Amino acid sequence: xxxxxxxxxxxxxxxxxxxxxxxxxxxxxxxxxxxLRGRLILLQENNEKQEDRLAKAILELxxxxxxxxxxxxxxIELENGVSSNEESIDxxxxxxxxxxxxxSDSESKFEDISRKLAxxxxxxxxxxxxxxxxxxxxxxxx
Length: 142
What we know:
Elements: H1 2-141
């Protein structure tokens, strides 16, 4: 019986050693789980921060995109305005060249008319002088 008792005690001792090893493993596993939970919490917090940063960056990008769209619209408006101004300038240039031609024609007509007027004035002055001379002769004859 003593040998059965010894065997039992030895089995008990071996089982106790195994139990302690298992408890040690369980303790290590608990600490590892605790460590992983802490790491998970930190990763979740970091993830939330990154999501916040991403949301801010997306908002800033959307704002920049809107500003870029407005700039493009404004540029197109300005280009259209420049095109319209260029057309107006071309039309005004045509009108100016036509006005210069008209001015040149008018100046030459004025010069012709001025010469004719001068000729007519000279003819009228001669005619008046002749008429006065004739009147004087008529007056002398009478």
